[in-house]
Amino acid sequence: MTKKKTRAEDTAKIVFHVEDLTKTYHMGEVQVHALRGANMELYEGEMVILLGPSGSGKSTLLNILGGLDTATSGLVVYRDKDLTKANEQELTEYRRFHVGFVFQFYNLISSLTARENVAVVTEISKNPMSPDDALELVGLTERMDHFPAQLSGGEQQRVAIARAISKNPQVLLCDEPTGALDSETGIVVLEALERINRELGTATAIITHNVDIAGMSDRVIHLSNGVISEVNINKTKKSPGELHW
Amino acid sequence: MDNLMRRKLMVAGFSLLVILLIIYGFLPKRQDVDLVSVHRGDFQVTIEEEGRTRLKQRYTVSSPSAGYMRRVDLKVGDAVKKGQPLVVLEPLRSQALDPRSRAQAQLGVSAAQAALEAAVEKERAAASDAEYVEKRLERMSTLFSKGYIAKDQFEQTETEAKKTRAYHLSSKAAVNMARADLEKAKTNLLNYGVPQNIGEHNLIYVSSPVNGSVFRLYRESEGSLNVGEPLMDIGNQKDLEIRAEVLSSDAVKIKAGTRVLFKRWGLDENLTGVVRVVEPAGFTKISSLGVEEQRVLVIADITSEQEKWQALGDGYRLEAHFIIWEGKNILQLPASALFRSGSDWAVFAAEKGKARRRIVEIGHRNGLAAEVISGLMEGEKVIAYPDDAINDGTRIKQRK
Amino acid sequence: MKGQVFAITLVVMSGVATFVMFISTMDSLEYTRTKFYRDYNFADAFVHLRRAPESLIEKIKDIEGIRQAETRVVAQVKLDISGFNEPVNARVISIPDGGKPLLNGIYIRKGSLPDPAKDNEVVISENFAQAHNFNIGDQFAAIISGKWKKMTICGIALSPEFVLLMKPEAMSPDFKRYGVLWMNRKALSEAYNMDGAFNSVVLTLQPQARLSDVLRAIDNVVGKYGGFGAYGRKDQISHRLLSEEFKQLKTSSKIFPSIFIFVSAFLLNVVMSRTINTQREQIAALKAFGYGNYDIGVHYAKLVVLIIAAGLISGIGCGIWFGHILGDIYMAVYRFPYLVYILKPWVIIAAVFVSVFSAMAGTLHTLWRAAKQPPAEAMRPEPPAQYKVSLIEKIGLGKKITQPSKIIMRNMERKPIRTFLSIIGISLACGTMIASGFFKDAVDYMIKVQFVLSQKEDMSVSFFDLTSRRAAYELQQIDGVQYVETYRIVPVKFINGHRSYKTVIKGMEPDSRLQFLLDTNLNKVTLPSSGLMLTDHLAKILKVRPGDKLTVEFLEGSRATREVTVVALVKQYLGVTGYMDLSSLNRLMNTGDSISGAYLVTDKNKQEKLFLEFIKTPRVSGTVVRANEITNFYEIQAKGMLFFTFIATLMACFISFGVVYNNARIAFSERSRELSSLRVLGYTRGEISYILLGELALITFIAIPVGFVLGYWLCAYLAYALASDLFRVPLTISSKTFSMAALVVLVSASVSGLIVRHKLDHLDLVEVLKTRE
Question: Is ipTM > 0.90 here?
Fold first, then answer.
């Protein structure tokens, strides 16, 4: 596998540097080795898809990158910050100001409207965009005052995306964003992600087990059995509309 | 300011408010007290005792002799002048004109009369008997001297003559006796005689020895009197004095000239008086509490204008307050503020809304107030009847 | 779930425990009393008189309805106890020489009856013996009929006549200064010139006899011997006060457990509905498999019973334990020879029944709903909750509050009933605390009004017989006495139509500086120069108003009946009395200036000397020091009040903890997902705590003032329920009580909040990403 450099690689601004990352946790009496020495990098501005079957450790990797989980051993550096040495407060601060998160099941606050769900994050950010702008980016301006219970799955996910990027994060991490959606809606969501990555230049990492989606990213990082098995570069990125599943 | 900041401030502010309110609830509150002032004024220390009024001079008018008193017109309280007749005495009258007694007396006269007549007749009979025997004796003696009759016969007649003479004499005496009895009966009848007309010159007038009024009547209805029997008391109401039986330990503090106030005698205004005499000898008395005490009699005169105490009578009860010490312009405070602190007296003075304990020196004291010698100044306020809730430093306020 | 069940258990336990405690204590006391009365022949009727020949007893026995009658000689004496230089009085009762009394028997705890050959042996009451550390063989002196006499203690005893020993005008028993002595009849009669005579009769009645008829018949017989009016048990002071106590226990046993039952029902409802909701799928599956609604219902009903079982069992155990403690506290004041602890079966049955019933009532609706749903529907996920914009935002403040605050508001408004009930639950805890503080506040206030504001004397003396007013001067002149005011007390019967009441008229000096009558606003009321003033409560009993005429029958002296005008009413918390100007009273009774006693202001340093002096003063029958009355009261009541306050505080803590913790736990489980999401988004632990606990804090803060209001109403009800002619309870609550209630609620709410916060802090963030709602 040749390691060709992408545009991002050329500029060589590394957002994440992961070295020999292992994560072991206990489930009852069983020890699960989720990551067994993963190595990777994420470059500024790029979109990366983490691909792998369930149990491959991709979620664990994303969680550690997002500061939700801690490594058992290894090195995870975000820009110049060593996340493995960060304490709880530092991690919280890191997530607060630097990371945007999108969940598989949207995880919106059901008692807040779409706009308020975004405001929940902009309120605590240093340099956010306005909730209205964020929602405009995902094309939900008319549904701003609706509660999640009144929105479709796709709309909810788009609100979640708006929420994630409204803080102008350095990094956008998405865990199976289309996992709960049908392909049509899923494409709309992916389009939103693509647009943000393009317009804002936010480094984006998307987890999926769906190979078809892989075509829209700059690189595809394959995980298997807790290690990075291969890294592919997409010479040409497909647009989400061109994807089928 | 952004919402987050505002929220943080509000939460903090609200929490603080709640905590402050809770603390406030636990803080000791201002105690309600009654404040009284330290002031200057007249001060009196008195000894109080029950007193009774008494007429200084009480004249008991009594009957000068036995007699029959006419009904008295005077009533208790009536004014009398010196020399005014109070009681009219008639000489003793006989017993009642009782018809039965009279009839009996008359029968007595008749019986005596009859007895007299009987006695006279008896005497006549005795006289003629005696005369007859005398004549017989004369004859007999002539005959005897001539020896015609026996000596024996002659002596018989002599004896007879003696006998009849004796009978005659005794019947004469009986007549006298009967006559005397008749006189007695007649005199007796006189007692039951028809009412006589008493002449005015027989009456005795008992007059008043002084000006004054009647204080007591012993006899009111008419009837017979013995000599010396009391009839009424006359006295001058103006002559009332007050007598009080004072404890000997108190009596030493009272002397002649001590001023007295008389209270609770009936009308509102108090009367004034002056002690005239403190008797030197005490006497033992069981008090109302059942304790044996030594008491001394103190007598005082009333000095108020007589019009004020016109209504007072003899034997009226009142409260005598003997002023054993008085002063003017004395710095004093109500005794209710004082309490013991060890062997000293103390008060709680009000200073800037707080109670401050102060030891004070007390001079004279009566039941309601005490003289301040040191420790307080005029105009200061002190707490009356301080209770356990008051301590040095307690915040106080005057009760409404 | 464990924590919630624990919280509910605490609440159920509290409810059952208080219920069992109050009722069992009451039953125990009642049973013990009945047994004591029966075993020792407590009389049904009593009459005291001046003096009657022993032969009169035959006439009394002849009265229809009387079963047994016994004469005795009673007297009031002063005691001189070396080492205790305070005035002490005792009631002396005669007992048959060398034998036990037939009626109003005595239970000899230690020692024996007095030797009939001796005239200086006494049996004393146990409380009195304990207060002075007396033992058999100890000696003290008594002034019997004016003679100082040394007495030897031969026995220590109890009697149904003196289960509660109290001076008639006192506020609480004084074990040190008032006792009962039993002496041989012969010795006592000789001292009081009562050979062959008696001045007190006690009687038992036939079961079918009518008390009022018998009393009237007795009065007719003893009237001319100076009878003071026959009375039955319900007017006998010891019996009366004990009955009042029972009434109080009964009231308490109704109120407090009810609060707990309500709260526990509420909590159970919330917990069960939550449990059932989370188990919807399982229920649906069971129904799909053929289990009927009934089976499902029974299953959950069993769960409910299991949950409250722990509370029930521990509650009954605690109730019995506390019942014993409470019984002991009562025993210190009410003197029974033993306390038979009674736990009637119905109490347990009632406790179980009521708890289960209320639990069922609380959860029935939820059970029914769950059981009713068709399986297919139940298996579908629960539709998402519908939210609305909250009221706060509607009124325009929306822009000013943060999103988390909006979450709180909207959540509260989504389930208004649950929010409301939570507020009520916590406010009940607050109210319970206020009620417990109220007892102390009311007592403090009563004492302040009756013993501090109304009375200023240092001590008062009373006389054996009517005394001349001149005695005031004599008292004044005793060294140490600074100021004297006199009074007269006349026992009377007030009659208004068919209503009557036996009490006293107190004649007081006008412009008194030591005794004040107060109106409802604590302003002084001037004594009218003629006419009568009445305690407001008495006026209510007699249905008279100021301006009305009232018939007064004097039960002393001439026994005249007069009419007086009621001029004004006075507010009093203790007793019911009439008041008149002293001279006016004396005039009305056609006696000269006579007094029954005097109030004194004295020099504290000379007080002991005065006590000794008064012991020696023949006419003085007793001395009462005002400050002693107050300290004594608090001493006697202290333990009981402390116990009660402790229990109430504990209960309040349990309730507020239970409600807040339950709410917090349920909110936690309902929203842990959202809160974790927020954590992932960068919210700190503190910030998500705000969302969860903020709602609870808001509910608590709202509940506190609501609790103040509820507590006030509860106290008002208690004041009303406990009022009697013996005392009225003022409705006064100190700021300290309010603060304490708020503090306890806040602290217990904080503690449960902290426990939940601990859970929040340890949320597994990774989990949340994986799960659907």
Answer: no
